[in-house]
Amino acid sequence: MPWSNQGGPRNQNNGPWGQQGGPWGPGSGGGAQPPDLEELLRRSQEGLKQFMPAGFGGGGLAILVLLTLLAWLLSGFYTVGPNEIGLNLIFGKYRGKTQAGLNYNLPAPVGSVVKLAVTDRNITDVGFREETPAEGRRRGGQTARLGSEAPEESLMLTGDENIADIKFRVIWQIDPSRPEDYAFNVANPHTTVKAVAESAMREIVGQSQIQKILTADRKVIEPASQALMQKVLDDYHSGVMVLQVLLLSVDPPQQVIAAFRDVTAAQQDLQRLGNEAEAYANRVVPEARGSAARILQEAEAYREQMVAEARGQAARFDQIYEQYKNAPALTRQRLYIETMERVLGGADKVILDDPAKGGASALPFVPLPSFGPFKGGQK
Q1: 228-247: pLDDT as tens digits
Q2: Looking at the structure, do residues 151 and 232 belong to the same domain, yes or no?
Q3: Which residues make Cβ contacts (< 8 Å) with residue 246, sequence separation at least 6?
Q4: Which of 190, 286, 323, 355 would suit a FRET pair with 267, their CA atoms being 20 to 30 Å apart?
Q5: How many domains does the chain have?
Q6: Rounded alpha-carbon distances, angstroms, from residue 188 to 17, 183, 226, 240, 306
């Protein structure tokens, strides 16, 4: 050993502490008892005085101790940013939270402060890994929109026993009302949020059919999965607030994506044709109903007209009959004249009385132009 008597600076009896026999002075080595505490303090003070200026007595030492204690206490002031909340710890135990501004807690090693950015938004991607610009350059600038694939996360089983490839993003932040849960109850918050998000999405997708997931139910899945995630995280007392769930991509597996797209396109065509047929029916049916109503109204008007005319003719006949009973000869003469007037009123003929029978003589005149041109001596 370095303090042995073989060429060492100390003899066998001195040991590493020299002739004193140990750190406590003479007799402390071996099985001797430690010195009195008062003796130890006296020696410590004497050793400290050797480093103090001359005339620095017990009062100066007390002032030095008080200044050191004051500096230690003043080091407990700290500031919290506008986007942060501070958590005060005393001997590692949570004692309360502080808001933005200047705050105080006992300094180390008694106290400590944990600052959490409660307003910063965090993003957790499930089903893909977003590429950095450097990764995109390594791929020749052909950076995929969603980055690299993670099929172990994105492939999910639907309620009708199909497989859907779902990539989504979760936006979350620390709950400002419970930051202590985030700091002390969850060891790895990002991993926890990702595991809960994947589990919640698998549960929601497992209750839906793939065709609805690909078309109409996409806007239903987002709020449903967000509510389920928040419930699970609250049960964990994780101090995480889920702000939004965004479905970035919902597709069938790569092997059958072309067939699913054809089926989706056919369903969309069917829906489009159905809408067009309904629009045509909505346009044609009112027109047909309007035409039918118009025809019915015209028939009703014609019926009323015919009935009114028939009643008028019957009333006229009754009146003529009454007059005929009073003067039959005169009525017959009048009826004859009126009838001939109606018959001959449109005819192109002139009737003259015979002069031999007392009629007035007239110059015979034939209005040839009124008979039209003659051809071959014939009209």
Answers
A1: 999 999 999 999 999 999 99
A2: yes
A3: 168, 169, 170, 171, 222
A4: 286
A5: 2
A6: 51, 10, 20, 12, 96
